[in-house]
Amino acid sequence: CWSWPCGAAGLRAVALTTAFSLKFRLVLRSATWRSASTLAKAGVPFLLGPEFTDQEQDQETGKMHTRILPKILHDSGGTFSVTALPTSLGARYLWYQAGQLVSYGIPRDVALRAVTLEPARALGLEKNKGSLEVGKDGDLLVLTDDPLSGRAWVDTGVSEGRIVYERKTDRRLAEVLGVSTPDRN
To answer: What is the per-residue DSSP string for 106-141?
Structure first.
């Protein structure tokens, strides 16, 4: 459902996959707002493209209406993941996407889950990825500021419980910033 408003098609997809016990995910565009609440009630996890809003002009009054797909899904009880695509500068970064969700009235914890746990669930990886829990892989980033602030740098990167990046020893970053770093052994 990525390339067209998938109202009826999305509802048929839900019915077919439910009837045959298939696992599926719908990728929704902002223009699918009309069917979003119905699809959300079906309990389908969604992947959202980088554009969250749809503008439409009322043919009778000429007034422009803006519909915010993630807000409609959230208010309908739907869960969703956010994709980062190189379509625009902000859409490339998950922190930016999460910040946009908050600016549209999505609670902060829901916005952060949309870029962490929900994508892991959508891929069937939630047993190992998406949150910090005993027995999971232990992948995390330690940031220098609030992840939604736009001012955060990665200070430390941990993958499977091992430190794989430390800002203080990043020679390339030090060169760009014009500061010195200790030699890395």
So the answer is: --HHHHHHHTTHHHHHHTT-TTTSSS--TTS---EE
Instruction: Check: CB of residue 26 under 8 Å from CB of residue 44.
Output: yes
Helix (H, G, I), strand (E, B), or coil: what is residue 143? Answer: strand
Report d(CA 181, CA 183) in Å as an integer. 6
Q: pTM, whole model, 2 decimals?
A: 0.77
Q: Are 100 and 90 in contact (CB under 8 A)?
A: yes
User: In Å, how far from its chain's centre is CA 69?
Assistant: 13
* SS3 (DSSP) at 159: strand
For residue 8, give the amino acid letter: A
CA 98 to CA 105: how far, in whole Å?
A: 11
Tell me: pLDDT of 185 over 50.
no
Which residue from 147, 121, 148 is spatially nearest to 136, judged by alpha carbons?
A: 121
